[in-house]
Please model this.
Amino acid sequence: MEIRIQSVKFDADVKLLEYVEKKIGKLSKYFDGIVRAEVFLSLLPDVENKHVKVRLEIPGNDIVVDRHSRKFEDAVTECVDVLQAQLIKVKEKRYDK
Model:
């Protein structure tokens, strides 16, 4: 699986990029058919100003999840949790037929 990370209007540090790659990389355990993961990191003017959007390209439909939080790590973790559940549903639907 290819992982692309884009930080919008700021430079993400190496620790954050490694954290995102580690978390997103674990999604391949739940569904083998992931072609690419695109992660967008951006800042919002809110109090919870860290915004994360993840787009997984899988055969058929893409899955898009976005969350915001006080820390990028928390938002990434929330996105990964939602994506895990959705990937499990997709896998069950495809292989139960």
